[in-house]
Design brief:
CATH class of the largest domain: Alpha Beta
Distance between the termini: 56 Å
Strand order of the largest sheet: 3-9-8-7-6-4-5
CATH topology of the largest domain: Aspartate Aminotransferase, domain 2
CATH architecture of the largest domain: 3-Layer(aba) Sandwich
Number of domains: 2
Structural class: alpha/beta
Bound molecules: pyridoxal-5'-phosphate
Largest sheet: 7 strands, mixed
Helix content: 25-40%
Number of helices: 15
């Protein structure tokens, strides 16, 4: 159930539904409660005063799932590990873009992912995952969750349905499949996972096991402007808000969103283990959301120009850009259905001559900065094999087609000709 409509949570002007980019300026914030301030102040406080002991007791009952007759539907402000006005404003606004009933924000993308997985997968359970995932998520699922008795089975993103089903059958032999976890498009190789197929497998598993696993989709790489997984078969979208949503490479945060039913165990676990986000970072993110569409669309336009330049360069072997998917291919069809004409601004390409040549190019770039991460206003480039994905088993990296000279670039909103000129001079060093 979405939050009740209030004067500051109105999504329409008469009969006209308002767009997320309009609502992003004010939704969920009542200026009257903050001296008429046009923007939410930062509620830099750890705790909130109750108006009476009875009210405090009622809030704790509602928060703990022990509500009594006459208690409010949602708890009032209590303690900033549980709730805070800046957290609530940000969560309300995030739901607009993804069409979610509820969002939960976290201290990092990994905080969101680990809290969601722990909320659904318990000892003896299995996670069915696509691969590759972001390196940190691969480490979490393959190395850390097994320490708590949670196993995993994988399929390569973009694999034929028969192979995905084989992984599912293998998973079922090891335990209850508690969650289907995918990343699409994949970081860094831009492979595409079919979310409608994932939803179909989740339905089948529901009938066979008596438990329908949620389809959890990491939507960090295309972001909420590029695609909305909840409309395509996903049950929960997870994000590293550090990337496009934050968008300025100046904060670390994460989010999960979906129906209120899906979010209930996630929110409860977040309150228990304290993977919540601080008020100041929430305030920065609410500010970022006002420009997320402008920034992302500008970066996407720039990326198309840079990718086209790189594609024809003699020292570049393969550009894994979503705009180059072969029309009529499975990936192209799935991508069109899930993201339309959005091709993102993060892609990998292979430099001829392997790692040494790639390093020479990386060291020669002057405008594009050599750093991990993606989705900022500035362009960033890295060598995933030795950085973000260094912890991934070399055999798996090979299976996934990571070339030694593969670099990943996240194109920002600089002048595109300046970016192309930078690649032109740096590729001379190869
Ligand atoms: C696709 C993806 N998911 C999750 C994460 C983890 O996010 P964070 O660094 O905010 O914990 C990253 C970080 O690079 C990522 O690229």
């Amino acid at each position: 159930m979405s939050k009740p409509e209030t004067p500051y949570r109105k999504r329409a002007l008469g009969d006209r539904p308002l767009k997320p980019e309009t609502l992003a300026m004010s939704y969920g914030f009542d200026a009257k409660l903050s001296e008429g301030s046009i923007k939410p102040p930062i509620f830099q406080t750890s705790t909130f005063a109750f108006s009476s002991a009875e009210e405090g007791a009622a809030f704790f009952r509602v928060m703990g799932g022990r509500a009594q007759e006459g208690d409010p539907a949602t708890p009032g402000l209590m303690y900033s590990r549980f709730n805070n006005p800046n957290v609530e404003v940000l969560e309300d606004r995030l739901t607009l873009f993804d069409g979610a009933e509820e969002a939960c924000v976290f201290s990092s993308g990994m905080g969101a992912i680990s809290t969601v997985l722990m909320a659904f997968a318990h000892t003896g359970d299995v996670i069915l995952q696509s691969t590759p995932l972001y390196g940190g998520t691969e480490t979490l699922i393959r190395n850390i969750m097994p320490q708590y008795g949670v196993k995993s089975h994988d399929f390569v993103a973009g694999a034929p349905e028969a192979e995905i089903r084989e992984a599912m059958e293998a998973g079922l032999k090891s335990g209850r499949i508690a969650a289907i976890y995918v990343e699409t498009p994949t970081n860094p190789t831009n492979e595409v996972v079919d979310l409608a197929l994932m939803a179909q497998l989740a339905d089948e598993l529901g009938e066979r096991q008596g438990h329908r696993p949620p389809v959890i989709v990491d939507n960090t790489v295309l972001g909420p402007i590029g695609q909305t997984p909840l409309s395509q078969g996903g049950d929960i979208s997870v994000y590293s808000l550090t990337k496009y949503v934050g968008g300025h490479s100046d904060l670390i945060a994460g989010a999960a969103m979906g129906s209120s039913e899906m979010m209930a165990p996630v929110r409860k676990l977040r309150s228990a283990i304290g993977t919540n986000l601080d008020p100041h970072t929430c305030w920065l993110l609410a500010r970022s959301l006002e420009t997320v569409k402008l920034r992302m669309e500008a970066a996407f336009r720039n990326a198309a120009l840079v990718a086209n330049y790189l594609k024809d360069h003699p020292k570049v072997e393969k550009v894994r850009y979503l705009g180059f998917l072969e029309p009529g291919s499975r990936d192209h069809t799935v991508h069109q259905r899930q993201a339309g004409d959005y091709h993102g601004s993060t892609f990998a390409f292979d430099v001829e001559g392997g790692q040494a040549a790639a390093f020479r190019m990386l060291n020669a770039l002057k405008v594009v900065k050599l750093a991990v991460s993606l989705g900022g206003t500035e362009s960033l480039i890295c060598h995933p094999g030795s950085t973000t994905h260094a912890g991934v088993d070399p055999e798996l990296r090979q299976r996934l087609g990571f070339a030694d000279g593969m670099v990943r670039v996240s194109i920002g909103i600089e002048d595109p000709d300046d970016l192309i000129a930078d690649f032109e001079q740096a590729l001379q060093a190869v």
